[in-house]
């Protein structure tokens, strides 16, 4: 970087005198030359946000890298080595399907960055070499002189040199009230000028701006994907079990001369790998989440990231952004306190000093409240609110008298009026301020005579009609709401009281000097947090996650985007910016938060369906791997062929995809993936059902005297039938008859059972066995599997799966 040109934060620039800013940025009263601006673009970069994109091809190929793909790829290679090309093709097909589904539904931050970049792509009025020019804002550099006025989006962080403006920073800081800025203040990129005009010097551009740092927070936000964690753990446990059994059995079988040829050992190893890898898990998860997303869409909720459908089930803390989420993000007249007149007369006076045409939020609030009031006078003149004088003024003619009406900041108006009654007025002002209300004084008087205070107007950003009910339902679902706002503590406290969030609150400024453990403690116990900046919201979410919470975050503005991206569940409300929507997993299509309870309830149903599939899969892995091992030593040959193994995988893993629409009961508390308890209970049931398969071998030997191929068919049918009844067994955490399976699940089970009865009777791709043997296998599987239901209930209770 060139000598003299430094990168200083925008907030630091606010403390530096304009003359010194000119020196630091090597600029002058005539601005920069075009040549100097071009040189500075090479130093500071364009006024845009750097993109980091992964090529689609690389993203797709990445789906073939990881523990689960590795196991399947090994199985494909081994199948080809032993000459089982058909089985290798089946495994390759399953691997490709899973990769395609994962790639199609993957979400990244690129869309968010694209939207943030487009926000900066505005035109700017800049002074260069003493000439006013209109340029693309991406070409702004530190040191440029900038003119901003009513309606402009501030294109870069800049220090005001001359003039005064009022800006809307709600999309950046979350503050619902406009902010008045004058010479010496910093106007942040992304703010909207609501009033006034100013000459400024650009101090920071692109990613160095306050707005740009929000984009950087979105980029680095890395929410924990609980779905990915679960899939990784299931794969890891299955892989460990499979590899241990595979190595141990291969060595023992070779030592005992049960398998003397390498091809025979490899055939057994491939069968183990095919049975252990949860091939359909990614696809099943995606289908379940997509089904949940379709249901939510019918309720006015758009799911933009499928992981959110499952992750919402585990949310135990919901960080709720106040402005625009709990509240309306619109100033309203809350209270009228006339001193010597009626409320209607006070409003009439306020109208004379207000105008809808200014677009001023306070003027608009007064006009809305005064609709229907007929004014008695004719306004002669009107002076809009001026940040430098902090007042607006109107002159009206009533009954041939000219009345001067002034509206403005209390201390300014009091200084212009007769001191009588000042103590009462200040008492009322303090009372309203303690509740977080913004106050105005209205004063009137004949032209040429002293002004008198006519009354007080209190304004606030009111709660949405459904906010209190939402908070109540969240607490019933054992989800703790935490309100987060950039507004002051009194405003936050009053809103929290009205909607029933709680009275335990903190200001983030009070935490600055505390140690990390104390900060975490204060954040966890707080019902609401005030005076919060965008980076604070992101930090709050990270802190709660560090404490073991699964965090949801609602919001609507640019300021919410990093926290929305970091949270396990980001929820954008209906009026949210595109940036907030792209950062979220869920977007509410209707105003307010009415859909949020639907999201949590539906996600808990999806969780229960996913849990059923996982328990069923783990049971099958335990039962299958140990059956292959014991069966080999008992019978002297593999109890399942590779083709039989492929058929079993299809019947067990993919036929049970109908669980995506199964009837499921949501719990009244957040669902957590306690993999230890899930694995222990599943292993226990797997060992029980292993005994069923071993008895089936005994029946095949003693009752039917089956040959090797017939025995392999009989065991295949028994395993397939068991897999279908096992779904009925585990889908209900209590006794299996307590809830009816969904129609799709019943149809799927019926089709699989019928198909395999036909398969065994006709002898398609397997050895034919008598129909009586197939029917006995069906009846035996149903009786044994459903007969252990009381034991299942006991196991689930002890493992905490029944709540």
Automatic annotation (TrEMBL):
Cation-transporting P-type ATPase N-terminal domain ranges (all copies): 12-84
Protein topology in the membrane: Multi-pass membrane protein
Transmembrane helix keyword on record: yes
Gene Ontology biological process: monoatomic ion transmembrane transport; proton export across plasma membrane
GO molecular function: ATP binding; ATP hydrolysis activity; metal ion binding; P-type ion transporter activity; P-type proton-exporting transporter activity
EC number: 3.6.3.6
InterPro entries the UniProt entry points to: ATPase_P-typ_cation-transptr_N, ATPase_P-typ_cyto_dom_N, ATPase_P-typ_P_site, ATPase_P-typ_TM_dom_sf, ATPase_P-typ_transduc_dom_A_sf, ATPase_P-type_domA, HAD-like_sf, HAD_sf
Alphabetized Pfam families for the sequence: Cation_ATPase_N, E1-E2_ATPase, Hydrolase
Annotated Gene Ontology cellular component terms: membrane
Places the protein is found: Membrane
Keywords for the protein's UniProt record, in alphabetical order: ATP-binding, Hydrolase, Magnesium, Membrane, Metal-binding, Nucleotide-binding, Phosphoprotein, Translocase, Transmembrane, Transmembrane helix
Protein name: Plasma-membrane proton-efflux P-type ATPase
Listed transmembrane segments: 237-256, 262-284, 680-699, 711-729, 745-766, 778-796
């Amino acid at each position: 970087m060139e000598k003299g040109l430094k990168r200083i934060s925008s907030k630091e620039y606010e403390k530096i005198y304009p003359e010194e800013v000119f020196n630091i940025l090597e600029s002058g009263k005539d601005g920069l030359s075009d040549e100097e601006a071009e040189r500075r673009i090479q130093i500071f970069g364009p006024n845009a946000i750097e993109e980091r994109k992964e090529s689609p091809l690389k993203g797709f190929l990445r789906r073939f890298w990881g523990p689960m793909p590795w196991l399947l790829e090994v199985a494909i290679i081994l199948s080809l080595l032993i000459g089982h090309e058909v089985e290798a093709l089946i495994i390759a097909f399953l691997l490709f399907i899973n990769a395609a589904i994962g790639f199609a539904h993957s979400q990244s931050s690129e869309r968010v960055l694209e939207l943030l970049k487009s926000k900066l792509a505005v035109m700017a009025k800049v002074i260069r070499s003493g000439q006013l020019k209109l340029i693309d804002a991406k070409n702004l550099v530190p040191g440029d002189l900038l003119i901003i006025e009513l309606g402009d989006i501030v294109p870069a962080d800049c220090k005001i040199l001359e003039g005064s403006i009022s800006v809307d920073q709600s999309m950046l800081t979350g503050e619902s009230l406009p902010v008045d800025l004058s010479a010496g203040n910093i106007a942040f990129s992304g703010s909207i000028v609501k009033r006034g005009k100013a000459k400024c010097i650009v101090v920071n551009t692109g990613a160095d701006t306050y707005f740009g740092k929000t984009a950087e927070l979105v980029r680095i936000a890395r929410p924990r994907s609980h779905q990915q964690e679960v899939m990784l753990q299931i794969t890891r446990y299955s892989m460990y079990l499979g590899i241990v059994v595979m190595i141990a059995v291969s060595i023992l079988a070779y030592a005992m001369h049960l398998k003397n040829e390498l091809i025979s050992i490899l055939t057994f190893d491939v069968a183990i790998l095919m049975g252990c890898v949860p091939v359909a898990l990614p696809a099943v998860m995606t289908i379940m989440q997509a089904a949940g997303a379709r249901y939510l869409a019918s309720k006015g909720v758009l799911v933009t990231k499928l992981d959110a459908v499952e992750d919402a089930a585990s949310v135990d803390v919901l960080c709720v952004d106040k402005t625009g989420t709990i509240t309306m993000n619109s100033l309203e007249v809350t209270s009228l306190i006339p001193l010597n007149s009626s409320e209607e007369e006070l409003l009439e006076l306020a109208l004379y000093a207000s105008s809808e045409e200014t677009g001023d939020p306070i003027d608009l609030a007064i006009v809305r409240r005064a609709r229907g009031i007929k004014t008695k006078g004719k306004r002669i003149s009107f002076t809009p609110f001026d940040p430098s004088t902090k007042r607006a003024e109107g002159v009206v003619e009533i009954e041939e008298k000219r009345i001067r009406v002034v509206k403005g900041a209390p201390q300014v108006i009091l200084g212009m009026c007769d001191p009588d009654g000042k103590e009462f007025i200040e008492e009322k002002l303090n009372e309203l301020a303690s509740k977080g209300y913004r106050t105005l004084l209205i004063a009137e008087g004949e032209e040429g005579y002293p002004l008198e205070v006519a009354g007080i107007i209190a304004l606030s950003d009111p709660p949405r009609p459904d906010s209190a009910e939402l908070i109540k339902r969240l607490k019933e679902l054992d989800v703790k709401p935490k309100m987060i706002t950039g507004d002051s503590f009194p405003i936050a406290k009053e809103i929290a009281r009205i909607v029933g969030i709680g009275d335990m609150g903190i200001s983030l400024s009070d935490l600055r000097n505390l140690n990390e453990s104390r900060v975490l403690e204060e954040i966890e116990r707080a019902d609401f947090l005030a005076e919060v900046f965008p980076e604070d919201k992101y930090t709050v979410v990270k802190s709660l996650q560090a404490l073991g919470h699964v965090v949801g975050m609602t919001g609507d503005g640019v300021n919410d985007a990093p926290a929305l991206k970091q949270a396990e569940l980001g929820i954008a409300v209906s009026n949210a910016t595109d940036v907030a929507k792209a950062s979220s997993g869920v977007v509410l299509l209707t105003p307010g938060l009415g859909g949020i309870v639907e999201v949590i309830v539906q996600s808990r149903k999806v969780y229960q369906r996913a849990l059923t599939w996982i328990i069923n899969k783990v049971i099958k892995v335990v039962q299958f791997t140990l059956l292959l091992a014991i069966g080999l030593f008992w019978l002297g040959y593999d109890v399942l062929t590779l083709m039989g193994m492929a058929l079993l995988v299809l019947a067990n893993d993919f036929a049970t995809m109908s669980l995506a629409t199964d009837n499921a009961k949501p719990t009244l508390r957040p669902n957590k993936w306690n993999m230890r308890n899930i694995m222990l209970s599943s292993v226990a049931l797997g060992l029980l059902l292993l005994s069923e398969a071993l008895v089936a071998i005994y029946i095949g030997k003693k009752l039917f005297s089956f040959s090797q191929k017939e025995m392999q068919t009989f065991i295949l049918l028994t395993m397939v039938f068991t897999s279908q009844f096992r779904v009925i067994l585990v889908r209900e955490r209590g006794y299996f008859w307590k809830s009816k399976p969904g129609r799709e699940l019943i149809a799927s089970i019926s089709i699989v059972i019928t198909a395999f009865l036909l398969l065994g009777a006709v002898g398609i791709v397997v050895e034919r066995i008598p129909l009586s043997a197939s029917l006995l296998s069906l009846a035996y599987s149903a009786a044994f599997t459903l007969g252990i239901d009381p034991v299942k209930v006991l196991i689930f209770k002890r493992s905490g799966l029944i709540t």
